[in-house]
Each structure stands twice: as structure tokens, then as C-alpha cells.
Amino acid sequence: MPATKKNVSRRKFLRYSGMSGIALTIGYYLPALGKGKAEFLTAQSADNLGIELTAWVSIDKTGKVTILNHRSEMGQGSFQVVPQMVAEELEVDLDHVNILFAPSDQQKYGSQSTGGSSTVRGAYKDLLRTGATAREMLMAAAAKRWGVDTSECYAENGQIIHRPSGKKLGYGDLVEDASKLTPPKNVILKERKDYKIVGKPMPRQDTPLKTNGKAEFGMDKKLKGMLYAVVERSPRFIGKVKGFDDSAAKAVPGVKQVIKVQRAVFATSAEGVAVVADSLWAAMQGRKALKVDWDDSGFEHYSTDQLYAKMREDLKGKPLNFKSKGDFEREFAAGSKKVEAVYETPYESHSCMEPLNCTAHFHDNKCEIWGPIQAPDWVQREISSMMGLKIEDVTVNMTFLGGGFGRKAFLDYPHEAAVISKAIGAPVQVVWTREDDMTQGPFRPGMVYQCRAALAQGGNIAAFETKMAGQDMDHQWPGASKLSYNGSVSEGFLETYFESLPHYSFGDIPLDSPVPVMWWRSVYASTNGFAYESFMDELALQAGKDPFEFRRMHFADERYRDLIDQLAEKSGWHSRGKNEGWGMAITECFKSIVGEVVKVSRKADGKIKIDKVIAVMDCGWYVNPDIIRAQVEGSIVMALGAALKHETHFQDGKAVEKNFDAYKMPRISDIPEIEVHIVDNDEKPGGVGEPGLPPFSPALCNAIFDLSGKRIRKLPFNLDDI
């Protein structure tokens, strides 16, 4: 077992947890940053070997369990499901589990980025084994004390019980003895039928913290001597500071300094002017008084119509081949029924409830960060690289996030805060206003799709093609080749379709634009899904098939058939009434499959209303059904906004929508009844936080066509105009 740098000890864990008297502390060592099977160790044995542990689990003499979580909590439920998994195998009441955020340390934790709905599916086995390992060690300690065989003992509700005699010992009574034992190499995990809390609805542990004010979000952080800063940034993304007049800004009471700053945005360096003050209000008033002269030459000042015109024109060219099978062009040319369609989706802001913010303290050639950050290890590497620091001299501390959606996995705002702190020689909290966030981006990329297909006799798809035109996020990173294809071209498209389609072609035509773009909830599946599942409905119509039957006949895998059958049953698809519009869509991302049916009808005034959404999620093995339902509901609401309410436009190289007066969000009155069903099976776990979003917009548009005969191929649209 190779040794790595030792920088975590029991003493340090005590500081993290705020506990005293910890007697049993275990964790797992992940060879090669997460590659390979976890090996469990106690804190003492790790200290002796110089081994780094992750996901530390400690039990004190009161029986209280503390876990260090290496992932952020942005509403998706990691703060709940991580302890729920450990508590299941440890046999403790969830109320006796405490969870703390771990600091950034890639060498110790491997990837700490929270995205791609990856927390459970990436670590569930090791988290279960962590609880089971501690349980087995406590049982062994009890058996040794009683002088009995371990097989005669079992764990229940924080106690070890001797089955023949009924003798009991609490975990707190055993932890000291257990800490001296060697963790077992192999532990037997429970069967699913024996779960007591995994798979069961459990109240979230962070809800009380968020209702009583104890939860710490980014802007709650306060440091001695901390100042506040806001930054005036170029409205055209890559603009440079020619000069600025700060005389009026410095005259504002409380303003301390006005300085030119930079932040890294992919491969570019974005400039701005920071106003630093002793209060956030003073900093904001100082910025209003600031006058900046910008140099925004050297790049295109695109407007929205120009961007989409270019994408549509690009579709006439040959794409970069992403994935293909057979000979599409030959089979398409020979097809008796051919279908073609073009779909468009808009640029979108992330618009998290909590605006961007970050607190930084640069001192003694070290930097410490606090804030709502999705990827602390990425931020640690970025600041280390950009500021010439040793990676161990950069510490990133996570707070709760008021939404993330990918934006808070970006690196620019922590880097900016670190730069300002170094420049002023003091800790600083940098706050972005809503207008800053919505005009600066990065944004979800707008996309245009060209879909073509030929149908065979009997209605099966003989050949299928899609060409996708739009910006590739990966092309923005330093050193990236702009000749590479987008690796997410088929994201959202069902894997089972690839098995049933004899000829297909998926291609990418990247758009070169200065508009910064990046991940958005479900990433490219949020746009792909609209095109692909809308097109499947158009194909079903041309084939003369029911949309349900058409999809099902192309499902080569029983798992998909089971999901669509459940979707039909739960929605009442086969008993659809008159004067109603019904639409379905099924998409797949992050190893989860979600089907949704949307029902629409006309109100007395003739306008269309959304009556109900029925969703069926197959995420395989799961932890907490309440969290799954909440995430699917939230995804549907976000998708509804993207379909009907909001988009970001550009005019002369500037974002037009600056706040929620123009970037309209769904209101409570816009939200239909949502019914969520979860598939029970033995598949490996998939993601939960994102997969519920992509099917909604195509299901809605398919329902509108079913009711009105009007086909919608461009988002967003006004429901009142149908």
C-alpha cells in the first residue's frame, strides 16, 4: 500500500467536527484518487502508515456519529443521503448522525466536484461499506468483552446485542476498544429487502438548519477585518479597461480602494474595476459613481439573430462525426417515407436563487476561500496555478449553496476574490449582483438541430440522422482544439435506440462565438432532449403509430419497456379522453431514464393550460424517495421556465435581460399538478438531480400538437399564442 503525504490526523479531525473524546475514527483509502477498491483503516493505523483517508466516520463516547462529506450541498440532498447510507449499515438512528463539509484536498478525496448527478452513484458502495465496517468492528469489540463469538451478536439502534442472553452495549461504550482493532477486509452489506432507512422517505437533516438560520451560506461568512467588494465588468465579455475615473467613487463614505482586477474565464482574462469598502452597500454605491472606459475591440459583437442565422447556415455543411452506424445516406435516399425537421433552443442564464459570492483571505503567500462552490478541488488547482501557490497552500471551504446548476462549478468568481484579497492585503467578500450574474454568463448555449429520418415498411425507423450546431463548451478551455466534436451530441437520446436503429449518424458543427457558455442543469440533454423526443413524435405520426407504441417497438431492452409501460399505466395513456392533449417523452442522462406525460386542455377563453405532469423515474438503486420526487418536481419547474418563460438575448454583443423583470420566471400559478413515480429494480444507481428536466419540453410540445395540431420546434414559446 503506497504512502502519501500525511496531513490529516485525529487532532485535525477534532477541529473539523467540533467534537471531543472521539474514540473510533475510520475512513477509506482510495488508491490512485478513487481508482480501485477502498481499503478501510482506523485513524491511528492511517497515522502510522502515512495514508490519506476520505469520508471519515467517527463515533464518540456518547454514540454520536460524525461524517466528513466531500461533496457540496446545493439543494440536491447530499447532506441527507450521505449520512442516510452510512447510518443504514451502521445501524443507527439518522438523528444521531452529524455531517460536516470537508475542505478541498484532491490528494485525499479524489474528485470533489458536485455535478453530473454523481454523488450517490459515484460513492454509494464505499459509503455503505464505511458504515458496515464500523458496525463489524463494534460487534467484534462487544464479543471480545463478553467472551462470545461475534456471530452471536447483532447491531440495532446504536447498540450491540448478544442474541442468546439479551445483553446490550451502546456504541459509545465500545468505541475505545473498537478503535484498537484492525478493520475487516471484507464486509457483507445488507440485502435491499433488509433496509430500514435506505429507500425510505426520511426528513432532510438540513431543513431545520435552513429554517432556523443556522445554515451557513456564502454571504453568511464573516472574518475579522473583512472588507466587501463589487466589480464593474465589461458588458461585452472580453472588454479591457482603457481607464477609469474613481474620484466620485472614492468620495462615497466607506469606500477604501478602487483597483483594476482580472479573473480567468476559460482561455481569456476578463478585466474589471473593483470597488472595495467597509460595507456591501458602500461598495455598491461606489460602483454606481465609478466611470470606466472600455476597449471592446477585436471580437464580434454578435446579436441573437446573427448567432442563430450562422447556426442554421452551418447546418448546410458537413458535421464532425460523433457516432454512426451503417450507411445513413444510402438508406435515407431509398426510404419510402422521409421526415425532416429543424429545432431551436435558446441561450439561458443559470439564475441561481443565491447570487454568486466568494470570501477570500490571501496572506503569508497562502490563500483560503469560503463560499458556495460546487468544485472545491478545481478551485484549489485553479488558484494554485493562476497565483503561483503550492496547492497545499490553497484551502477551499464549502458552504451551503442556494442553487448551482453548473454555474458554481466554474472557477472565475473564486479566482477574482483571491486576486482582490491579495491586492488589498485583507480578507474580502466579493458579491455579484443579480445583474452581474445574468449579463456576464457563462450561459447555457443556444442550439439548432437538423433531424432527418426514413421509415421502413411497418413503421420502424430505417435511418436516423441529427446534426447539432452550436457552441461546444470544451472548445473554450486553454489549448482546446476547435476541430474536435462535442462529446455530448447524443446526450439525452435513449441508449436502447442505438440497438434498434440499423443506420444512424450523429454529428456536430461547432459555433465559434465570444459568448461564454457552460454546463446547465442536465447539460446538453436539456437541449438535445427537446429535439430528439419531439422528432420521435413526428416520426410516430408519419408511421401511423401511437407515440407510445412507436417508442416501445424501438426499445430493445426490457428495462426501457418496463419504464414506458409504467408511464402508460400511471398516466392512463390508453384511456385518453377527448378535448385533451397528451404528450410523452423519454430521455436518459447520468445513467437514469425518465419518462414524462404532459396533459393539456383549453380554458374557457380558448387558451391552453397545462393540467398535469406524470413522471416515472428509473434511477436504479436509490436512497431517499422524497428527495427524488423533490428533484424531479424542481427539474420540471425549471424546464417549464425554459420552455415558456425565459431566454437570454444578445444585442450588439451585450446580454439584454438583466433581472427577473425581463427574464421571466415561472410563478406558482404557472405550475401544474406534478405526480412522480419511482421504478424499483436492482440496477446500479443513476443520477437524480438533473435527469427529470429534459423530457418535459418535448412532452409539453407533443401534447400541444395532440390538442391543437400545431407543431412547436422553437423554444421558448408563449402558451397564450397557441
> Order of strands across the biggest sheet?
11-12-9-19-16-17-18
Strand content: 25-35%
Which homologous superfamily in CATH is the superfamily of the largest domain? Answer: Aldehyde oxidase/xanthine dehydrogenase, molybdopterin binding domain
Low-confidence stretches: 1-21, 31-35
Q: Write down how many β-strands occur, each being a DSSP E stretch of 2 or more residues.
A: 28
The profile of the biggest β sheet is: 7 strands, mixed
CATH topology of the largest domain: Aldehyde Oxidoreductase, domain 4
Mean of all residue-level pLDDT scores: 91
> How many independent structural domains?
3
End-to-end Cα distance, whole Å, is: 66 Å
Instruction: Provide the gyration radius in Å.
Output: 28 Å
Structural class by helix and strand composition: alpha+beta
Any idea of the CATH class of the largest domain?
A: Alpha Beta
The DSSP helix count reads: 20
Query: What's the CATH architecture of the largest domain?
Result: 2-Layer Sandwich
**General form:** globular
The helical percent reads 25-40%
